[in-house]
Amino acid sequence: MRRCMEESEMKSSPTLSRKSSCLFTNRIPKENRLVNVAEEVIRDKDVDRIKLAVERLSDSEELIADCNKPYTLPTICGKHKDLKSITPQTLTDLFSGEYNQFYTDYTIIDCRYPYEYNGRHIQGAVNIYTKQSIDVLLQRSEKDRPQILIFHCEFSSQRAPTLLRYLRAQDRMLNSQNYPRLYYPEVYILNGGYKAFYEHNQDFCNPSSYVPMLHEDYRSELHHIRTVTKSQTEREKTRGTSKTMSRVVRF
Could you report the per-residue pLDDT of 194-239, keeping only the tens digit for each? Predict the structure, then answer.
């Protein structure tokens, strides 16, 4: 009975509780306490850094996604509000040297299927149409990474935006300890896709031709690609590797 009363007094007494807490703290080795304090300081600094980056991104639509500089190319309000869109004319100007004063290397990512790409494509474009290929792109060394990526598919309606968002989500995850650092902070979507660019300027298409995704001569290829893609997606879900972002990804 007496023991229960003593325990009750200790719980109800702030003084006794503080003494008990101090006694417990004193049992923690000094070096461990120093480590805990250091970790708290680092966490506080990380929080401050992230807050500052988010504020800068919120205050300026013109900064690229790592807050280091403004966007190089002029953008428009395209179909996808979360992405930075450029016009076929802007891409033509880029080819023509209009932005040489900001010269930086760039890569055009053609997200169409291989038979579309082979039937032809924008000058210098590389064919990347799977998430696995995007993962390889993210593994490049710093010296091999182009500073600008421009995505497109046939209409820049689904395939290119999907892969662009996947790249940004994976890029954010890989650099989560150094927010807002990114491997590819400056990415664009070509408004209207290959079709719009082909109609605007065929001079930069190799050769000057256009094979649509639903071309009747390539039905079997389309069916095969869609079957493989669906199978890969299902395997990802089974393994639990399909990740969703808990917040809006800022582009």
Answer: 999 999 999 999 877 899 999 999 999 999 999 998 888 787 777 6
Known active-site residue 205:
no
Question: By three-state DSSP, how is residue 188 classified?
Answer: strand
Identify which of 94, 245, 241, 107 has the alpha carbon closest to the alpha carbon of residue 187: 107
Nearest to 4 by CA among 32, 128, 12: 12
Active-site hit among 22, 67, 77, 153? 153
Q: What is the 8-class DSSP label of residue 247?
A: S
Report the DSSP beta bridge partners of residue 76: 85
What global pTM score does this model have? 0.74
Q: How many residues does the chain have?
A: 251
Backbone angles phi, psi at 14, to 5 degrees: -60, -40
Q: Are 109 and 191 in contact, with CB atoms under 8 Å apart?
A: no
pLDDT of residue 247: 42
Beta carbons of 151 and 109 less than 8 angstroms apart: yes
Q: What is the CA radius of gyration of the chain?
A: 27
Q: Rounded to the nearest 10 degrees, what angle do helices 2-12 and 14-27 cross at?
A: 90
Task: Annotate 30-44 with b (16+ C-beta within 10 A) or e (fewer).
Answer: eeeeeeeeeeeeeee
Residue 86 near residue 76, CB atoms below 8 Å = yes
